[in-house]
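Field reference: "sequence" (input) and "structure" (output). Example, MEIG1 protein:
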Amino acid sequence: KKSEVSGVMATAHINPKSIHHAKTWSDEVENLYRFQQAGYRDEAEYKQVNQVDTVEYWPETGFVKKLQRRDNLFYYYNKKRECEDKEVHKVKVFVY
């Protein structure tokens, strides 16, 4: 099990400059929704915390396929859109 200190230190040096909420659905918003459901800001934070180089994507759609949560359980996602219109405004978009 990786130490939690290394996870905290890894995220310390890349803080977002600003944040806003998504207004309309897009492929980017869909993937952010999936990362945020699993407990991460975005792909950059996911890669740092889990110390992985790649994330599994569906080749057909480009959407995230599988993510490991912070408690080491996994989320598996469908090829189709999962972020409904009523959920779009909850997605946080970080600007670095």
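Strands lie at 18-21, 56-57, 64-68, 74-76, 92-95.
Residues 1-11 have pLDDT under 50 and may be disordered.
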